């Protein structure tokens, strides 16, 4: 009997030849990531255990992204706790305020390799499965255990494999595919499961697109997202890492495997409507909805391909009167590319605000909050009540193309 | 364990439990002052020590923020009962010693203000106002071990040698 990719990775990490879904294993962790917002609690918990040193400073990555630059004394206090921890524990993989959103910085800097086990104190850590790693979000106390021991227990998940066939039409993107899937299976449709994306449409996707898919696995309850590594993965890793890695793939006869077929030939742009990510409608049903703010950015759609798509639509046009638009590149690498390509100029000329790489208004804790009764259209991944500011505000989620087209009209607009 | 019920619906997410703007806080009591603010801004004033939250499916979905179970525990809530829990929230709660009880059909059949009694050993939850009983899904043995030792930090203090190997 074969095994799934998730099973193979976790078996290797726990020094076993075979594991089965449901089994609990103690796995060795390859990379442990924490950030400015959940890091301080992790440090506090670690200190309570009473161990002096972390297990391996080279395997810990710290990124400041949620509140950069610090916007309050509490935020700067958190930054100071983390800077002290990084210094005391001799952590070299430290990305201070300048680098960008953790889930973009980790793969860019070569910290994500196929076949590895990655944990992070952030639920969207599942993004890194796009490169064939088993990567999942954990809480601060679990992270304290990892800091102290380098290990964490896991229940081996079952796998849902989404076999995605067909070819996307112009101005329809990975975001539309994954929103469509979440709308179909629901916010708890994949709870505890590994969500593997495959099929010809996935193979046709760039690494960035695959990150969009895996990023949103958590929005259907998934433990991780995964894509089988291929030549595109190998090309992405070239120049980012010199380390060896192992590519693992799901066997067709794996016992814990359930396959769901999705065809995307006729898919139109999708929108997640307030206040749940699984409240998904085709754009035609919500076209014309008035918006107050547009956010183009986040670990879901703040990559260079997103900025290119949006700039192409907005070139020579202006953000509609009464609408404010925030453009936040996901990382410094994305920012400098966008600068060189003139994309940022296009946004500024159009009247958008371009901010430093960070999470921005995505979680309603930093810049660009929305007020009571206001409506936001966002390329991020969550539209929960109160997510971007007031609990009486509404958040719609879309691709970068829909966001750009809507910025120009001031209403939700089909980019096609 | 016996307590008064506060009811919530399906898919109660971590932004409802503790909105992002409060994540700069770490103190249990400060977090507790804003708990459930996303759907009931007065909840922290209404809830008393020993009360029990009863909710529908997928409780705690969303972020990995441990601030969420910390805020609930800090408010004095003795346990959260739900039809199902989101994965990260589930681990985080057990790790900090907040009891979670999974029971089918409970949210449709228990009313706000009812007194419920939970007997974890027998695996039974009883609504003392209606006498209706519900079966509890047992915690996996491994997690029960963590819970019984008072959470993951204590568990680690006792077992770190074995775990490190
Ligand atoms: S961009 Fe949003 S979802 Fe991504 S890590 Fe930041 S706050 Fe979380």
What keywords describe this structure?
A: 416 residues, 5-stranded parallel beta sheet, 15 helices, 31% helix, B: 165 residues, alpha/beta, 7-stranded mixed barrel, 7 strands, 19% strand, binds iron/sulfur cluster
Structure report:
By secondary structure, chain A is an alpha/beta fold. Helix content of chain A is 31%, strand content 19%. Chain A is built from 15 helices and 18 strands. In chain A, the strands form five sheets. Chain A has a five-stranded parallel sheet, sandwiched between helices. A five-stranded parallel sheet of chain A has the order 16-15-14-17-18. Chain A has a four-stranded parallel sheet with strand order 10-9-8-11. The longest helix of chain A is centred in the N-terminal third of the chain and has 16 residues. By secondary structure, chain B is of the alpha/beta class. Chain B contains eight helices and seven strands; from the N terminus they run E-H-H-H-E-H-E-H-E-H-E-E-E-H-H. In chain B, strands 1-2-3-4-7-6-5 form a seven-stranded mixed barrel. In chain B, strand 2, helix 4 and strand 3 form a beta-alpha-beta unit. The longest helix of chain B is centred in the last third of the chain and has 13 residues. Chain B is globular, with a radius of gyration of 16 Å. The termini of chain B are far apart. The complex binds iron/sulfur cluster. The site of iron/sulfur cluster has 13 residues of chain A, from helix 4 and helix 11. The site of iron/sulfur cluster (SF4) has 13 residues of chain A, from helix 4 and helix 11.
Strand-helix topology:
The complex is a heterodimer of chains A (about 425) and B (about 160).
Chain A (H helix, E strand, L loop, with lengths): L4 H9 L10 E5 L2 E5 L3 H11 L10 E4 L9 H16 L5 E2 L6 H7 L8 E4 L13 E4 L2 H10 L1 E5 L3 E7 L8 H12 L8 E5 L1 H4 L3 H9 L8 E4 L3 H7 L19 E7 L6 E3 L7 E3 H4 L6 E5 H4 L2 H11 L9 E5 L3 H9 L2 H8 L2 E2 L20 E4 L15 E4 L2 H10 L7
Parallel strand pairs in A: 2-3, 2-5, 3-4, 5-6, 8-9, 8-11, 9-10, 14-15, 14-17, 15-16, 17-18
Antiparallel strand pairs in A: 1-7, 12-13
Helix pairs in contact in A: 2-5, 6-8, 12-14, 12-15
Chain B lengths: L1 E6 L6 H4 L10 H5 L10 H4 L5 E4 L11 H8 L4 E4 L4 H10 L3 E4 L2 H4 L5 E5 L4 E4 L5 E5 L3 H8 L3 H13 L1
Parallel strand pairs in B: 1-2, 2-3, 3-4
Antiparallel strand pairs in B: 1-5, 4-7, 5-6, 6-7
């Amino acid at each position: 009997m074969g095994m799934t990719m998730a099973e193979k990775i976790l078996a290797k990490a726990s020094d076993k030849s075979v594991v089965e879904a449901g089994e609990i294993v103690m796995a060795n962790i390859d990379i442990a990531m924490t950030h400015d917002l959940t890091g301080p609690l992790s440090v506090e918990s670690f200190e309570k255990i009473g161990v002096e040193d972390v297990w391996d400073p080279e395997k810990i990555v710290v990124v400041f992204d949620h509140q950069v630059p610090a916007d309050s004394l509490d935020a700067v206090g958190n930054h100071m706790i983390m800077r002290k921890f990084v210094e005391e524990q001799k952590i070299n993989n430290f990305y201070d305020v300048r680098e960008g959103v953790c889930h973009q910085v980790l793969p860019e800097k070569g910290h994500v390799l196929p076949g590895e086990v990655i944990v992070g104190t952030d639920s969207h850590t599942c993004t890194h499965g796009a490169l064939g790693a088993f990567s999942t979000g954990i809480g601060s106390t679990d992270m304290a255990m990892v800091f102290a021991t380098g290990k964490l227990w896991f229940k081996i998940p079952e796998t849902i494999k989404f076999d995605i066939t067909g070819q996307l039409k112009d101005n329809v993107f990975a975001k539309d595919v994954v929103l469509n899937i979440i709308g179909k299976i629901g916010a708890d449709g994949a709870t505890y499961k590994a969500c593997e994306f495959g099929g010809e449409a996935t193979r046709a996707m760039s690494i960035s697109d695959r990150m969009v898919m895996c990023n949103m696995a958590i929005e259907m309850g998934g433990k991780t997202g995964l894509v089988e590594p291929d030549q595109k993965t190998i090309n992405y890793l070239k120049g980012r890492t010199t380390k060896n890695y192992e590519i693992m793939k799901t066997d067709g006869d794996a016992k814990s495997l359930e396959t769901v077929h999705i065809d995307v030939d006729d898919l139109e742009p999708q929108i997640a409507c307030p206040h749940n990510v699984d409240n998904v409608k085709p754009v035609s049903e919500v076209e014309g909805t008035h918006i107050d703010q547009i956010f183009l950015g986040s670990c879901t759609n703040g990559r260079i391909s997103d900025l290119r798509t949006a700039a192409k639509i907005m070139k020579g046009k202006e953000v509609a009167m009464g609408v404010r638009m925030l453009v936040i590149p996901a990382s410094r690498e994305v920012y400098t590319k966008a600068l060189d390509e003139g994309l940022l100029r296009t946004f500024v000329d159009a009247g958008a605000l371009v901010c430093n790489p960070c999470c921005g208004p995505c979680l309603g804790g930093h810049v660009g909050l929305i007020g009571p009764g206001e409506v936001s259209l966002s390329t991020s991944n969550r539209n929960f009540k109160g997510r971007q500011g007031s609990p009486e505000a509404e958040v719609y989620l879309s691709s970068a193309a829909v966001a750009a087209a809507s910025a120009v009209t001031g209403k939700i607009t089909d980019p096609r | 364990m016996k307590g008064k019920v506060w009811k919530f619906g399906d898919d109660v997410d971590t932004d409802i439990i503790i909105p992002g703007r409060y994540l700069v806080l770490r103190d249990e009591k400060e977090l507790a002052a804003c708990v459930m603010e996303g759907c009931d801004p007065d909840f922290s004033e209404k809830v008393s020590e020993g009360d029990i939250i009863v909710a529908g499916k997928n409780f705690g979905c969303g972020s990995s923020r441990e601030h969420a179970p910390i805020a609930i525990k800090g408010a004095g809530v003795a346990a959260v009962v739900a039809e199902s829990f989101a994965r990260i929230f589930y681990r985080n709660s057990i790790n900090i010693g907040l009891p979670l009880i999974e029971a089918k059909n409970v949210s449709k059949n228990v009313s706000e203000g009812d007194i419920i009694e939970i007997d974890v050993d027998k695996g039974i939850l009883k609504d003392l106002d209606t006498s209706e009983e519900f079966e509890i899904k047992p915690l996996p043995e491994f997690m029960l071990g963590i819970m019984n030792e008072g959470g993951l930090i204590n568990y680690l203090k006792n077992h770190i040698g074995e775990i490190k190997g």
